[in-house]
Design goal:
single chain; alpha/beta; six-stranded mixed β-sheet; 10 helices; globular
């Protein structure tokens, strides 16, 4: 059982972790995070989402939370102040897009105020319950400035994305990190960008360490922050390959069962929660 007094920081991924299957934060989860705030925990949400997409979701919790977005390319303070930002150069992105990429793959550039894409993707759009971060369909060959926060490739065929990842890294091994946030989503970031690196900047600001952190996640882009934390927990809904890779970490209830909130309530807050989860 975790030592309650050991933990001062709670870190959580968003999709597949803190959010339910409707891409929302449940009332129960909000109440648990409000109690954590009352107990003076430092709260951090780290997501692959763009900040314009993630900020309105986090606001619904109603307490101060640090926000790491685009897998670490942006950090916002609980007061929404931009603390850190990093963009990939237009030249490097153009060299990636010049590869022979299957036209069936949805290609996305995360820019500051809009995401550029080669096609409409209904599943991708469904992740935003409100369209705060607007897509724009473009011909990338006609876009002059390709500077972006990150690249995203989406396809139902995971093996096709693995092959694309290998091709990109063969040509750009010095430039990029990659992560599969979902089996259908390949994310390409600058090598200096990772959730764990961004979180370390926040911890330094708060005079905290990973040894005081409990962390929740469900995808390969969560791996380093889960391993770095004193206690890393994996959602039951994570893919088996991720669970197997981090087999030493405990698995908790699914995101659609308020797994994060229930664990925190029982093991960290350790007080009766007088509200319903649904």
């Amino acid at each position: 059982m975790p030592e309650k007094n050991k933990f001062k920081v709670v870190i959580s991924d968003l999709d597949g972790t803190l959010l339910n299957n409707e891409h929302k934060i449940s009332p129960y989860t909000k109440k648990v995070f409000q109690e954590l705030h009352r107990q003076n925990f430092t709260l951090i949400v780290a997501t692959g989402r763009h900040h314009l997409d993630a900020l309105p979701v986090i606001e619904t919790i109603g307490v101060p939370i640090y926000l790491v977005t685009s897998n670490g390319a942006r950090i916002h303070s609980p007061e929404k102040e931009l603390l850190y930002s990093f963009d990939i150069s237009s030249e490097i992105i153009r060299s990636v897009l010049s590869l022979d990429i299957d036209s069936e793959i949805t290609t996305v550039l995360f820019k500051e105020h809009v995401w550029l894409t080669n096609k409409h993707n209904e599943k991708l759009n469904s992740f935003q319950t409100e369209m705060n971060y607007v897509p724009e369909i473009v011909d990338f060959n006609a876009v002059e400035d390709l500077t972006a926060i990150k690249l995203l490739f989406v396809d139902e065929n995971h093996h096709k994305l693995v092959a694309l990842k290998d091709e990109i890294l063969t040509n750009h091994s010095d430039n990029f990190n990659y992560a599969f946030s979902l089996p259908i989503c390949l994310e390409i970031m600058d090598k200096s960008v990772d959730k764990s690196i961004a979180i370390s900047k926040i911890l330094e600001r708060e005079n905290r360490t990973f040894e005081e952190a409990i962390c929740f996640g469900d995808g390969f882009n969560d791996e380093k922050m889960l391993v770095a934390s004193a206690k890393g927990l994996i959602m039951a809904n994570a893919v088996d390959s991720f669970k197997n890779k981090l087999s030493h970490l405990e698995i908790i209830a699914m995101n659609d069962e308020d797994g994060v909130a229930k664990y925190l309530s029982k093991e960290i807050i350790r007080k009766e929660i007088l509200f319903e989860s649904k």
